[in-house]
Every structure is written in structure tokens, then in C-alpha cells.
Specification:
This protein is of the alpha/beta class. About 40% of the residues lie in helices and about 15% in strands. Helix 1 (about 1-30) crosses helix 7 (about 175-190), helix 4 packs across helix 12 and helix 8 (about 235-255) crosses helix 10 (about 285-295). The termini are far apart. About 40% of the residues are buried.
Length: about 350
């Protein structure tokens, strides 16, 4: 009778502990997500975190008044952390000051404010926008109430980025663990399939040496890339947007200030020909062609990124929609090569 009670007790303890041990094992394997795409799409950080050591960037401070800036930058999240601007400033000797779209109201409001406050030292305005957001910024939301918002600078402290990888922490959120385990098992059962979870695409790649993460045979991308499938993404809309940009260029030119537009390719655009089951077609080429037809200076990043994507492993973060630090260095290198930048640095 006693042995039967002991057996029952051990059985209860075993039944209680096994699920906890499995849960903890999964928590330590899956890990807490660092990347935007692993977090949104519920994919294992262990599988999609970059393993390659990143270069160190000396990031310039931004937010305090910059005495006599040569260049003003308006950009989105690709400019938010002042990475490529800092590299470019070090390369050219030109002083930059940066602003984010979310802090200026709209492009038209920022230009109006800029022209009323621009220092005499200002030589160049650069506006950076990710491909999928191009029409939203330069066409649909180009106009707003002037003066309603006073533009604020991006706030970044001067620092050096770290080349060291931080240890990953276990993921203890049960809902995230369940969804991530489910996705990981689905991929294991159907390794050739494409998946769409949490607004993130996970697609097979034809080439497996472009990223340093464990699952370098797959590409994670954001659902926003697919916005370019919309019927509005056509030459007529590009030309309307280019007319707005030309109006900016003409207003700046009166003050002797030059303009460069930088359209950063979506992640899927750079690897489009290597995705086994592509969902969109890049529009960067058509956008830049329209801008140039209206006399706008552009920096064409797409062909350059395609050229260096095999040499710069993790050009874009495997678990992110943004460039890696190495990618931001490459971006600054290509901007530096533009005729406008070469001429301004020699003035």
C-alpha cells in the first residue's frame, strides 16, 4: 500500500515537473526576440539573429544645435539613429543635422520652417525615404497645415556602436512561445513553403550564403513591402510625386541650397531575384527614373546593394527590415560617391 502511495506521489511530481521543464527548455531555445521581424512574425531569435560581428560606427550626437551645419537630413527609421549620416560626415567633413518625419508634420511644413530658419552655411538638403513609404510621403501626405508643428531634431547621444553580441535572454511569454513553436514546426514540416504570420513574410531563398544567421536559407520581410502591389503604384503617381519634389527643389534653389532624394530599397527589392516565391516587384528604378526626369538628383542604392549583397553578409538584418551597421556604412559610401557630394566637399 505504501509503495503504491509513493508511486502515486512520484507520478504526480513527474506529471507536474515535465511540462515545466519542457516550457523552460523552449524558453531557453526560442529566446526573447530582438529583431522587429522575429518579434512580429513569431520566429525564433536563435534561428534569425545575425551571427556576424558588425563594424563599429562612431555615431555623432544629434539634437543639440549644430553650429553652421552644411547638410540637413529628413528621413524615416533608416535615418533615426544617425548611422549613415555619421559615417558620411566623417568621410566628407560636412556637418549634418537630422530630422525624422514623425517630428516635422509633413515635408512641406519642414521645408517652410527650414527656409525661414536656415543658416547661411547650409549647402544641401537630403531627404531619405524607404521605398514602400515613398508615395505616402511625397504624394498623399505631402501637404499639411503649415506652422501647426515646429520641427524637432532627432535626439541621439554621441557614442560608438558595439561589435559585441549581447547574450540572448529566455522568452517566458507563453503566448509568444506557443506561436513561435507552432511556426517553427510548420516550417520544419513544409521547408519549401512561404509563410505569412504577424504581418511578416518568411520565404525560401535560392542562395543560402547572404546572411549569417542559422536559417540563412530564409528571408524575413515586412508586410508593408507588399504595398507596391497596389494599383496606385504606377508612373502617373510617381510623376505627381516628382512634381511635388521639384517644387521643393525650386524653392531651395532660390536660396542656393541643393537637394538630393535617397530612396532606400525595401529588403525584398534587394533580394527579389533570389526569393523562390517573390510577392512584389521593386519600384525603386521607376521612382528614381521619374525623379531624374523632373531634374531631381537621386542616389541609386538598388544596383549598388545588389552588387555588394554577396560581399557584405547581412547587408540587411536577418531578423529586421532595416540595414545592418555594415549596410549603413555601404549606404554612406554610395551617397559619398554622388557628384553633388563630391562637389560640395571640395568647396
Amino acid at each position: 500500500m505504501a509503495s503504491s502511495n509513493y508511486a502515486g506521489s512520484y507520478g504526480f511530481i513527474f506529471a507536474f515537473l515535465v511540462p515545466i521543464l519542457i516550457y523552460l527548455a523552449l524558453a531557453f531555445y526560442i529566446k526573447k526576440p530582438e529583431g522587429i521581424l522575429t518579434r512580429m512574425g513569431h520566429w525564433s531569435e536563435q534561428d534569425y539573429r545575425a551571427l556576424k560581428i558588425e563594424p563599429v560606427i562612431h555615431v555623432h550626437g544629434n539634437g543639440k544645435p549644430t553650429p553652421h551645419p552644411d547638410v540637413l537630413v529628413l528621413g524615416d527609421s533608416f535615418s533615426r539613429w544617425n548611422y549613415w549620416q555619421s559615417v558620411l560626415s566623417d568621410k566628407t567633413g560636412l556637418k549634418h543635422q537630422s530630422y525624422h518625419f514623425g517630428d516635422v508634420g509633413c515635408v512641406e511644413n519642414w521645408i517652410e520652417w527650414l527656409l525661414s530658419t536656415a543658416p547661411s552655411s547650409l549647402k544641401l538638403v537630403m531627404i531619405e525615404r524607404i521605398e514602400e513609404g515613398y508615395l505616402e510621403t511625397f504624394l498623399y501626405n505631402f501637404h499639411c497645415t503649415i506652422g501647426e508643428i515646429t520641427p524637432q531634431k532627432i535626439k541621439v547621444q554621441e557614442h560608438n556602436t558595439s561589435s559585441k553580441k549581447k547574450p540572448l535572454n529566455p522568452e517566458l511569454n507563453s503566448d509568444y512561445l506557443y506561436r513561435t513553436v507552432k511556426n517553427t514546426l510548420s516550417l520544419a514540416l513544409k521547408p519549401e513553403d512561404s509563410f505569412f504570420n504577424g504581418k511578416v513574410y518568411n520565404q525560401p531563398l535560392k542562395q543560402h550564403d547572404l546572411f549569417s544567421n542559422r536559417r540563412s536559407d530564409r528571408l524575413l520581410s515586412i508586410f508593408l513591402d507588399a504595398v507596391k502591389n497596389g494599383k496606385d503604384w504606377n508612373p502617373e503617381q510617381f510623376n505627381r510625386a516628382s512634381q511635388n519634389v521639384r517644387a521643393i527643389k525650386n524653392r531651395l534653389a532660390v536660396r542656393g541650397i541643393e537637394l538630393i532624394i535617397i530612396v532606400v530599397p525595401d529588403k525584398t527589392s534587394v533580394y527579389e531575384d533570389l526569393i523562390a516565391d517573390p510577392i512584389v516587384t521593386s519600384k525603386v528604378k521607376a521612382i528614381n527614373a521619374s525623379l531624374r526626369a523632373y531634374g531631381i538628383v537621386t542616389v541609386d542604392l538598388l544596383p549598388y546593394f545588389k552588387q555588394v549583397r554577396e560581399d557584405i553578409i547581412d547587408l540587411y538584418g536577418p531578423n529586421d527590415l532595416h540595414l545592418s551597421l555594415a549596410g549603413y556604412v555601404a549606404m554612406a559610401h554610395q551617397i559619398e560617391k554622388s557628384h553633388t557630394m563630391a562637389r560640395l566637399r571640395n568647396q
